[in-house]
């Protein structure tokens, strides 16, 4: 059976191929009766427009590229899924590439997407983005890891962590440990500043007796477990009564560390995570977390690329507020 073409649709509908094209592109000049007739024949014939031919004619690929550091990270997976849905709402598809958090690979992925004539790129930069030179003339929106000199969209990491730590302070905690992200990470440093902001509001400020209650770690589960062991391996009157982790994966790893040390959560230790990934609601006990508005960030990035929303000014990013999702891992502290 030969492939159905636009000329077949036009012939059966008694219209020109240009009219069929206008129907496909939802052009307002087509009358209601003609549109209904053409759409009916398209459905009956099972006609599918050739996307490459449409792209050549319109000079629009209807493709958006997304470059992320790591597809195995649940946060980035949800970001991609949200971006795909937002793009589909505008009649666009996405191409996903990973940089493996490496600037050279990142530059190569961007070059590949540019050669595929994508209409724009959503970029979560690698942590060594300082060496990256973005191409001119192609719309690029930087997301999550903001880069000086580029339009950016992200959750308000600093204010979000401050909300989470304030939640613990209101419960009565004062020895609050913090698991930060990698020191070279922009979001990790913003989250650390949020923790310090909140702790400076306490009577003793951010200073505590004994070793500092801050541990630097990668954002994954095993790093969170190691950091939890470090913070909890001290005398009861010196160890934290609560720990804020910079990612939900870290927080879940910290919960495991507490379990291995025989410290019940939340009876003897409160834990709060950050991100609000679906896994946070599946732990036992259910993790209290600060949720990033991932869907809002993705939708805004797509809208900016497609000129449906004004692009943020340089060095003045669009920041979305986070919210505390209270689970079952926080409670008032026990007396020493």
Number of strands: 12
What's the overall average pLDDT, rounded?
A: 88
Secondary-structure-based class equals alpha/beta
The proportion of strand residues reads 15-25%
How would you summarize the topology of this molecule?
Blueprint: H1 6-13, H2 17-24, H3 32-45, H4 51-58, E1 63-68, H5 74-89, E2 93-98, H6 103-115, E3 120-123, E4 140-143, E5 152-155, H7 157-171, E6 176-180, H8 186-199, E7 214-216, H9 221-232, E8 242-245, H10 248-260, E9 270-275, E10 288-291, H11 294-305, E11 318-320, E12 323-325
Offer a few descriptive terms.
single chain, 336 residues, alpha/beta, 6-stranded parallel sheet, 6-stranded mixed sheet
Q: What do you see in this structure?
A:
This protein has 336 residues and is of the alpha/beta class. The chain has 11 helices and 12 strands. The chain has helices spanning 6-13, 17-24, 32-45, 51-58, 74-89, 103-115, 157-171, 186-199, 221-232, 248-260, 294-305, and strands at residues 63-68, 93-98, 120-123, 140-143, 152-155, 176-180, 214-216, 242-245, 270-275, 288-291, 318-320, 323-325. The chain has a 6-stranded parallel β-sheet, with helices on both faces. The protein has a 6-stranded mixed β-sheet with strand order 7-6-8-9-10-12, sandwiched between helices. Helix 10 (248-260) links the parallel strand 8 (242-245) and strand 9. Helix 5 packs across helix 11 and helix 7 (157-171) runs parallel beside helix 8. The radius of gyration is 25 Å and the shape is elongated. The mean pLDDT is 88.
């Amino acid at each position: 059976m030969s492939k159905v073409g636009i000329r077949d649709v036009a012939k059966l509908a008694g219209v020109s191929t240009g009219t069929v094209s206008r129907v496909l592109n939802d052009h307002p000049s087509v009358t209601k009766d003609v549109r209904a007739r053409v759409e009916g024949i398209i459905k009956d014939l099972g006609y599918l427009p050739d996307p490459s031919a449409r792209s050549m004619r319109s000079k629009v690929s209807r493709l958006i590229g997304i470059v992320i550091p790591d597809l195995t990270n649940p946060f980035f997976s949800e970001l991609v899924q949200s971006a795909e849905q937002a793009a589909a709402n505008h009649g666009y598809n996405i191409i996903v590439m990973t940089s493996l958090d490496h600037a050279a690979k990142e530059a190569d992925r961007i070059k590949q997407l540019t050669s595929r004539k994508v209409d724009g790129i959503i970029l979560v930069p690698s942590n060594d983005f300082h060496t990256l030179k973005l191409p001119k003339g192609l719309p690029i929106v930087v997301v999550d890891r903001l880069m000086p000199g580029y339009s950016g969209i992200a959750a308000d990491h600093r204010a979000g962590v401050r909300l989470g730590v304030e939640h613990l302070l209101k419960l009565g905690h004062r020895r609050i440990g913090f698991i930060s992200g990698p020191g070279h990470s922009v979001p990790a440093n913003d989250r650390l500043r949020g923790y310090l902001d909140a702790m400076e509001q306490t009577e003793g400020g951010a200073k505590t007796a004994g070793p500092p209650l801050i541990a630097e770690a990668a954002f994954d589960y095993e790093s969170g477990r190691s950091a939890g062991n470090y913070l909890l391996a001290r005398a009861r009157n010196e160890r934290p009564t609560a720990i804020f982790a910079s990612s939900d994966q870290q927080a879940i790893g910290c919960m495991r560390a507490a379990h291995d040390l025989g410290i019940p959560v939340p009876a003897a230790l409160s834990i709060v995570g950050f991100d609000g990934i679906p896994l946070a609601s599946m732990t036992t006990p259910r993790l209290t977390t600060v949720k990033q508005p991932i869907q809002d960030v993705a939708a805004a990035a797509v809208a900016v690329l497609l000129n449906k929303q004004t692009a943020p000014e340089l060095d003045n990013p669009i920041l979305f507020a986070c919210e505390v999702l209270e689970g079952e891992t926080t409670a008032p502290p026990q007396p020493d």
